[in-house]
Design a protein that fits this description.
- It is a single chain.
- It is built from 7 helices and 10 strands.
- β8 and β9 form a beta hairpin.
- The longest helix is centred in the middle third of the chain and has 19 residues.
- The radius of gyration is 17 Å and the shape is globular.
- It starts with 6 loop residues before the first strand and ends in a 15-residue tail after the last helix.
- The relative contact order is 0.21.
Length: 257
C-alpha cells in the first residue's frame, strides 16, 4: 500500500442510516477527486440489521424489528444480513488502483489481523472461496456470518470478522468501500429472531449455524471488550501494516464508550 494522506475517524455510536449514508458519501466524494482515503471505526445505536446492497428486503421481518426498536437499513456494500449489536465496525474508503477485489480484501485483512494481534488475539485468514451463487440459493445464507469468504478473518476456524465491499467509479478513478464487523459479543446470533415468516422453519438451524460458525472477542478472551483499546489496536494495525500516519478531522472524532 503506497503512502497517502489518510483520515482516521472515530464516529462513536450512530444510527444505521447515518452510518451507511456517511460511508457512501465519502466513497462517492473520493471518486470525484474530493476528500481523502478514510479508515472509520464506529458502532450502532440503536442496534440495526443491515441488508446487503442486492439482498431482498423481504428476508427480514421489518414489523418485528420496529417493535423491538431495531433499525433496518440497506448497506451500499454487498454481502448478506447482519445484526449490528455487540461489535466494532470498520469502514475503509480508498482508491482501488489496479488491485482486484481479493487483493483489497487481503490487504485490509492483513491490517486487521495485525491490529487484533496487538489487542492480544491471534487469528487466521480463510484460504478458500465458497460458491456463493450456490450458497445464496439456500435460506441458511440469509446471514452474512453463515460462511466465510477468502481472506476473511477466523479464530480457530470460526468467523470473527465479516466484511463486504463495493466499488464506485468517477473521474478520479475507481474507489473501494469496504465494511466489516468485528464481533465483540454474541448478540449477532439474535438475527435469527428477525427473519421473515417464510423463513420460520429455518430459524433454529440458522441460530445453530451462527453459534457454531462464529466467534467473538468476549468468548475468546473471557472478558468484556475494551472498546477504546480495541479501536486503538485496529488503528495501529493499519498504520504499521500499511505505513500510514492518520490525520483525524476534529469535527468527526469522538470518544467511543
Amino acid at each position: 500500500m503506497p503512502p497517502a494522506e489518510w483520515t482516521y475517524i472515530e464516529s462513536g455510536e450512530q444510527t444505521g442510516a447515518f452510518n451507511m449514508a456517511l460511508d457512501e458519501s465519502m466513497a462517492r466524494a473520493l471518486a470525484v477527486g474530493e476528500g481523502y482515503p478514510v479508515l472509520r471505526l464506529f458502532r450502532w445505536r440503536p442496534w440495526a440489521i443491515s441488508l446487503g446492497h442486492n439482498q431482498a428486503a423481504g428476508d427480514i421481518d421489518a414489523a418485528r424489528c420496529a417493535a423491538d426498536g431495531i433499525d433496518v437499513v440497506r448497506r451500499p456494500t454487498g454481502g448478506r444480513a447482519i445484526l449490528h449489536a455487540e461489535e466494532l465496525t470498520y469502514s475503509v474508503v480508498m482508491p482501488a488502483g489496479r488491485r482486484s477485489i481479493l487483493q483489497v480484501y487481503n490487504e485490509i485483512s492483513a491490517a486487521l489481523v495485525w491490529g487484533l494481534s496487538l489487542y492480544g488475539v491471534e487469528v487466521a485468514l480463510q484460504k478458500s472461496q465458497p460458491d456463493f451463487a450456490k450458497e445464496y440459493r439456500s435460506s441458511s445464507s440469509v446471514p452474512c456470518f453463515a460462511s466465510s469468504a477468502r481472506y476473511e478473518i477466523e479464530w480457530r476456524g470460526r468467523k470473527l470478522v465479516g466484511s463486504a465491499q463495493r466499488r464506485f467509479s468517477g473521474p478520479a478513478g475507481d474507489v473501494v468501500l469496504q465494511h466489516g464487523s468485528i464481533l465483540c459479543g454474541d448478540a449477532h446470533i439474535r438475527l435469527a429472531e428477525y427473519l421473515s415468516a417464510p423463513l420460520d422453519g429455518a430459524r433454529d438451524s440458522i441460530r445453530a449455524a451462527l453459534r457454531a460458525k462464529t466467534a467473538d472477542l468476549r468468548m475468546i478472551t473471557g472478558e468484556p471488550v475494551r472498546m477504546n483499546d480495541l479501536g486503538g489496536s485496529i488503528r495501529r494495525g493499519f498504520e504499521e501494516t500499511w505505513g500510514l500516519a492518520f490525520a483525524p478531522p476534529a469535527h468527526f472524532t469522538t470518544q467511543m464508550a
